[in-house]
Every structure is written in C-alpha cells, then in structure tokens.
Amino acid sequence: xxxxxxxxxxxxxxxxxxxxxxxxxxxxxxxxxxxxxxxxxxxxxxxxxxxxxxxxxxxxxxxxxxxxxxxxxxxxxxxxxxxxxxxxxxxxxxxxxxxxxxxxxxxxxxxxxxxxxxxxxxxxxxxxxxxxxxxxxxxxxxxxxxxxxxxxxxxxxxxxxxxxxxxxxxxxxxxxxxxxxxxxxxxxxxxxxxxxxxxxxxxxxxxxxx
Length: 210
Hints:
It comes from Paenibacillus rhizolycopersici. It contains eight helices and seven strands, in the order ββαβααβααβαβαβα. The strands form two sheets. Strands 2, 3, 4, 6 and 7 form a five-stranded parallel β-sheet that branches. A two-stranded parallel ribbon has the order 1-5. The model has no long low-confidence stretch (mean pLDDT about 95). α1 (about 30-40) links the parallel β2 and β3 (about 45-50). The chain has helices at about 30-40, 50-55, 55-65, 85-105, 120-125, 150-155, 175-190, 200-210; strands at about 5, 15-20, 45-50, 70, 135, 165-170, 195. The protein is of the alpha/beta class.
C-alpha cells in the first residue's frame, strides 16, 4: 500500500462501519453526538483540530471519557501540500501533543484537511508520525454545506456497506442538520445489525479477517 493512499473503506465481512466527525470539538454539537452514540451503544472517531481542542478542552475530554477515538486533524486545518515540511510537522506535532494531554496516548489515525495530501506530506504523516490517512466514502453527502437532513441521510445511505468510513462534521458553523442526520443513520444501522466502531477498530477487524 502506498504511503500516499487515503483509506476510504476497508474490506470487511462483518457488518461494521465507522462514523467520523471533523473539525471539533465543539461545545454545542459534540455533546449532542455523544448522546446519540450513547443511546445506540456505538463508538465513533473524532478528528479534532488543535486550535479547537484548546478552545474546548473539556469537550475533548468528554469524547475520550465516553470511549470514543480522537484522531489528528492538524492544528489549524491548512491545505497540507501547500506547506513546507517543517510546517507540516508542526501542524501534526502540536495536535498530537494536545491529544496526548487529553487521552494519555498518541493518536493512531489522522485525516488530512480537505482530504488533501501528497507524497511529500505522506512521507511525514505516515513515514515519521506513523499515521494512516483516513478519508470517507460519503463525500457526496456534503454535510459541511448544510444541504438538508434528507440529503445527508440519502447520500450516506447509498455508500453504507461493511467497512465503510463515514464523514460528518461536529465543528464550525451550524451542525444541527448533521446531528439530526446522524441520529437517523445511527438508529437505522444499529437496527439493521451494524456495529458502530472507531476507525482503529474497523482497521483491526479488517486485518483480522484478511
């Protein structure tokens, strides 16, 4: 597998998917997401921005205390390929340190902002930090554009299968549409026999089946 590869889904026979949330933590919307996953007894992965962790440290801690995974989403959400090598390292390192303060452990996964990466970036993020780059299958849902709950649900449903990684946002702007769409999807998937797991758990399940 090329270090440049972005993982959008994994090969899996078991009915399991990974919900992921970008750009938080957010003191309004992140707790709502936590409630949803508590109700369905599922886990999710939150790709957090360093500056947002600094603003909402208690919210970040709540995510960890609820048993969810926290992934690295850089410090300031730049287009990484436009930065120098040193700037990329700084973006990753600052947020890694913040996450370690919250969880006591180095994060295992990262998502490039805008899913924008390159061989040069991957040489640092994968080669030096050991992070697989995580994408998603439901980009057409465009929840960040607030296109309506029905659109987010419908476009995500089209991409649901065992091993899917699903992208949503709990940070910046009004995320009430995302929260309602996730509430619907989480309940539907759980009722259909899917397990909602973290990205690291999904990768491990796939590796175990291989």
